[in-house]
Amino acid sequence: MQISPRCALAIGGVLVGCCSGGVFLELLVKLDPGIGNLVTAAQFAFIALEGLIFTSRLGQAQRMISLRDYALLVAMFFLTSVCNNYVFEFKVSMTLHMIIRGGSLISNMCLGTIILKKRYRLRQYISVVMISVGIFICTYFSSRELPGHSDGESGATEADVWRWLVGVTLLVLALFVSSYMGITQELLYRRHGKCAREALYYTHLLPLPAFLLMHDNIRTHWRLACEGETYTLPLLGVAVPLILLYLLGNVLTQHLCISSVYALTTECSSLTVTLIITLRKFISLVFSIVYFRNPFTIYHWLGSVMVFVGTLMFADVPRLPGSRRAEPLKRD
Q1: Which segments in the chain show pLDDT lower than 50?
Q2: Per the domain annotation, does 19 fall within a domain?
Q3: Is residue 321 part of a domain?
Q4: What pLDDT is attached to residue 149?
Q5: Is there a contact between 251 and 42 (Cβ–Cβ < 8 Å)?
Q6: To 10 degrees, the CA torsion angle through 178, 182, 188, 193?
Q7: Least enclosed by CB within 10 Å: which of 74, 127, 239, 245?
Q8: At what angle do helices 94-101 and 298-314 cross, to 10 degrees?
């Protein structure tokens, strides 16, 4: 399988950008678990600004899809982005976060069967069952490691478990909304042609006013960031809040991640896309376990292996199928 230079560059961007973005996000969450809304708002603002300059050309570029058609796509994209970054407030671990989000094939198959009337091979149904069982195993054993679970304080433990269940429910909800968003996007592209760069810009620009509804939360965590631990920049000798440095790193690497995934899906075959994104998720998971010393038992490893092997089986990776373009604008 020969890979073009542009495809190789996209692969490097996905591995570096997405993995680094995950590391910066975990560093942020370790310092402030409730920072999710601030992170999401910063990501949206930066990508919208970049799109305004390079995609919209300061409003001079002609739009291929009307704002009215974008409305539902924008609403779903905003909801999934906020949920995925806010669930850390509910004591959901980064490792479980990665594993559940790795189960998007389950929601894709369910909605594809119901809405698009797609039919799948037996091998793909088996792979989705593997992924489902793997996620269940990881979720169950993660619930047993919540703070206070082994203590005698039943009241505190019950409150922690219910709070954690809310976070897991939000993650699963975001998973299904994201899959429906992919279907909506596919239908839009059928009508208007593929315009992923434009969609990337408007799905980040149009939801910005909605962050005003969260201004109290965002302002609170911005204040906490400014008042927190500082880091003195080498050579300059200027002390900068550590959280703001991590936030800047997350925003820049997230932009590299999204841009690289877009390039990957337009330059490479679906086989390459599946392999690289699966590899990226596995690298992030292992790094999170080793570097951040997150709890991870043999049962978590079993569940993770089932999720990743099921993903590769679903895409027929062992059979090395022919090339097929994947849909762009996937939030990895």
Answers
A1: 150-156, 320-328
A2: yes
A3: no
A4: 53
A5: yes
A6: 140
A7: 239
A8: 20
Domains: count for the chain: 1
CA–CA dist 235, 14 (Å, integer): 31
Of the candidates 8, 48, 6, 40, the residue with the CA atom closest to the CA atom of residue 21: 40
C-alpha to C-alpha distance for 245 and 242, rounded to whole angstroms: 5
Complete DSSP assignment for 289-330: HHHS-----HHHHHHHHHHHHHHHHHTTGGG-----PPPS--
Range of the domain at 123: 5-147+158-315
pLDDT of residue 7: 84
Buried/exposed 286-300: b ≥16 CB within 10 Å, e otherwise:
eebbeeeebebeeeb
* Residue 289 covered by a domain: yes
Contact (CB, 8 A) for 310 and 134: yes
Q: How far apart are CA 261 and CA 281, in angstroms?
A: 13
Max Cα separation, the chain?
A: 64
Check residue 269 and give its pLDDT.
Answer: 65
Q: How many CB atoms lie within 10 A of CB 320?
A: 8
Q: Is residue 152 part of a domain?
A: no
